[in-house]
Specification:
Length: 778
């Protein structure tokens, strides 16, 4: 996007709904953006390293730290027995995730002890000198192994049901059963996990953490140190990527740093290398979807019965809400007249999986698109026609109730899909591709157009709240702080735009400050695509309070009605006079007007009863659609992404440039999940794809050769969100499902589209080649 796309940073008819650059963009490209490892190191700083298990499941018989403790430069070695408070970092109160394993290890790479030394290199080398004796126990690392061994569930499962799925399945004109496997994904943020702790007076400790959830870090540090939350201050200016991987996984590093800092009374930093980071921290859950479908000869769905089994790892972490959200999105954009869905969150002897962009939604939605694909091949129709046939209807159609009994009242998916179908010239291109495949033996093409309907809100109702703190100083400059964290997604910029727009001042007048638990308490994680919704509205509420005070002051001082006090670009009109904003604020200060406000917002309308499987867990839905064309080589399984067209709904965009960047980035990240990114554990439970050499994220050269991204400019959120915008963090991730579906069509062409190829994810070249070979035998 060239410079001319962006508005000048001086005020032009308000600061919302314009393409202002990311506040740190120039710092990112010049390397001047400060991350935790860039902060000048305090005097006497020590470094920490993890001592990791080399067994997947075993009892710890004995540990010998003599060579570790005597290694030159080592200051302290500590285990779970040295934790002054609770040896637990679980995010949900389940107490199933020890900070340091004491008597038993449950995955290869689990932290057992920590080494504190003069340098990071010394700490890492010393940690390898430990001698640990184990008694091995049976282990399983995948879903099939967990089921075969009767593995316990890490949390109670959830069931969603409506209608009579079993009865209508038996009565349906046609039925089929199937299974789909969906791989996990490593977050692979550019900045790995890192934490630095500095001890203070009495029980105080300050922590700098690369985390999406400062308040949780605060709570965890308090628990492990046995001190109250008011003694712990957590600071986050920015992260070099998060994607959900820093919602809970930063807990252990911050807690270890804090324990060592208080014990040694010196600043401590923990920064694992990439291998350790990938081995010891959780990933996207992989799933196995077992399903039965009832439908008619037209391809209209009558009944769905599906079980979503997930590899959760050794502890619960966020697996409950992740598998819940998978079920919430197991309908994708489709109405199921009769439905029965069940989650199966399985314990495995692998690292505990965690949040990842989409939070289970992509897995649920991908399963639904397989349902559509199965039906399309069974009835011999274009999958897009089956999609459109089964879309949710408009209010009054009788086709608006989700499996969790929420009504879809804002449905625009048909319009989004039809507009993209037309602008991408889908029908003509598909016909041309079918002709191309008929005439070419080894090179085949595929095309697919898939929809997105994604629910916005935390499904835990209490998390749908936010606070903001706004100060106006005497010179008219504005200080902004809120509970959201910046991980590159532009949240700070958007919330600053809200504030600048409220006061009608240049955005340069708004100072964006680091997120800290010392200013805004009890914050929710920056997750669930809700950062702008929640924190934008909290900042707006703070601005409202300040403006009410300022208007009342001006009305009294100049003896005019409140309606005649108007905020204009960089000035305030009071009756017939106009006063520059800084001068106006100065006068308000001398009149003793309070120029600070704490804003607050809680999402209305939402409620959820998990046990009953009923409620309104989402405030609204975000929609989108993508059309992707691919080319595969049937001799090698290699492929190219030739073209992608996207139309995505963000309501009235707060910042179109940032939102388009989010859509583009989410699509490419989703494409990586579904194609090149493969997690693999060996028979000893060791993660073998633990470095860039073995784990392949998409490169810039892997993006679609033609990449057209548009926002649905006509859309406006029907709900009263900030600026009538919609969330953009997670929904576009699932646009990448069009890539897998296009690859599937190309593979199906080998058998003349007679059967569904059952192409599982990730569709690596090897997996594509195996699917091609299966098609040759049809």
């Amino acid at each position: 996007m060239d410079k001319s796309t962006f508005e000048d940073r001086k005020l032009i008819n308000g600061q919302m709904h314009v393409s202002l650059r990311h506040d740190s963009a120039h710092k990112h490209v010049t390397g001047s953006a400060d991350y935790i490892d860039d902060i000048p190191e305090p005097a006497d700083l020590l470094h920490g390293a993890l001592g990791l298990s080399d067994r997947a499941h075993a009892e710890i018989v004995s540990m010998d730290f003599s060579e570790v403790a005597t290694y030159p430069g080592v200051v302290w070695v500590f285990t779970g027995k040295d934790i002054p408070g609770v040896n637990d970092t679980s995010s949900n109160g389940s107490h199933d995730e020890p900070l340091l394993a004491e008597t038993k290890v449950e995955f290869h790479g689990q932290p057992i002890f920590a080494v504190i030394a003069e340098t990071r290199e010394i700490a890492r080398r010393a940690a390898r000198k430990v001698k640990i004796e184990y008694r091995d126990l049976p282990h399983w690392s995948d879903i099939d192994g967990a089921i075969a061994n009767g593995s316990p569930l890490v949390v109670s499962p959830m069931t969603l049901q409506r209608g009579e799925a079993k009865t209508e399945m038996a009565n349906a004109p046609r039925r089929l059963k199937g299974q789909m496997r969906i791989g996990g994904q490593e977050h692979f943020y550019l900045e790995g996990h890192i934490a630095m702790a500095i001890p203070g007076e009495d029980d105080e400790v300050a922590v700098w953490s690369s985390t999406q959830h400062p308040s949780e870090i605060q709570h965890i540090v308090g628990h492990v140190l046995n001190i109250p939350s008011n003694a712990v201050t957590v600071n986050v200016r920015r992260m070099g990527g998060g994607f959900g991987g820093k919602e809970t996984q930063g807990n252990q590093f911050a807690a270890l740093a804090a324990v060592a800092a208080k014990k040694l009374k010196r600043a401590i930093k923990f920064r694992p290398d990439r291998d350790e980071d990938m081995s010891a921290t959780g990933k996207r859950h992989d799933f196995r979807v077992d399903y039965e479908l009832g439908f008619d000869d037209e391809g209209r769905i009558h009944a769905v019965d599906a079980t979503y089994s997930a590899r959760c790892g050794f502890s619960s972490d966020l697996s409950g809400p992740v598998t819940d959200r998978a079920l919430f999105h197991a309908d994708s954009s489709y109405f199921y007249p009769h439905v029965h869905l069940t989650s199966q969150p399985l314990k495995t002897h692998t690292v505990s999986n965690t949040a990842f962009r989409g939070f289970g939604g992509p897995q649920g939605m991908l399963g639904a698109e397989r349902f559509i694909e199965e039906i399309a091949y069974a009835v011999g129709k274009d999958p897009l026609d089956i999609r459109k046939l089964n879309f949710y209807g408009q209010p009054g159609s009788g086709r608006t109730t989700t499996p969790y009994h929420q009504e879809v009242e804002d449905n625009i998916i048909a319009r989004v899909v039809e507009e993209l179908e037309d602008s991408a010239d889908y029908r003509a291109r598909r016909n041309a591709i079918v002709a191309f495949n008929r005439d070419n033996r080894y090179i085949r093409k595929g095309i697919a157009l898939t929809p997105v309907k994604f629910g916005i809100s935390f499904t835990m109702t209490a998390f749908n709240q936010a606070g903001a703190l706004v100060h106006i100083y005497q010179d008219g400059s504005i200080h902004l702080n809120h509970g959201g964290t910046e991980m590159g997604q532009g949240l700070y910029t958007k919330v600053a735009q809200v504030l600048a727009d409220s006061f009608q001042v240049d955005i340069d007048r708004v100072k964006i400050t680091a997120t800290t638990t010392g200013k805004v308490p009890n914050t929710s994680a920056t997750a669930a695509s809700s950062g702008s919704d929640l924190n934008g509205m909290a900042a707006y509420d703070a601005a409202r309070q300040l403006k009410e005070r300022l208007v009342a002051f001006a009305a009294e001082k100049w003896d005019v009605p409140a309606s005649e006090v108007v905020f204009l670009p960089n000035r305030v009109r009071v009756g017939e006079i106009e006063i520059p904003f800084p001068d106006f604020i100065k006068q308000a200060y001398f009149a003793r007007v309070q120029l600070s406000a704490a804003g607050f917002y809680k999402t209305p309308k939402i409620h959820w009863d998990r046990k009953a499987g009923r409620g309104t867990p989402f405030y609204y839905f975000a929609y989108g659609a993508a059309c992707t064309e691919v080319t595969i080589d049937t001799l090698t399984g290699e492929y190219l992404i030739d073209r992608t067209d996207i139309l995505h709904d963000v309501g009235r965009s707060l910042n179109p440039a940032i939102d388009i960047g989010q859509v583009e980035g989410a699509f490419v990240q989703g494409m990586g999940w579904l194609t090149t990114e493969e997690l693999w554990w060996d028979d000893k439970g060791r993660l073998r794809t633990h470095a860039p050499s073995t784990y392949k994220i998409p490169l810039a050269s892997d993006r679609p050769k033609i990449f057209n991204v548009r926002l649905a400019e006509w859309s406006e959120n029907a709900e009263a969100t900030i600026g009538r915008s919609k969330a953009v963090g997670e929904p576009p991730f699932m646009l990448a499902i069009s890539v897998l579906e296009a690859l599937s069509m190309a593979v199906a062409s080998v058998a003349n589209y007679r059967v569904c190829p059952h192409l599982d994810a990730p569709a690596t070249p090897e997996r594509v080649l195996m699917a091609v070979e299966r098609m040759k035998r049809v």
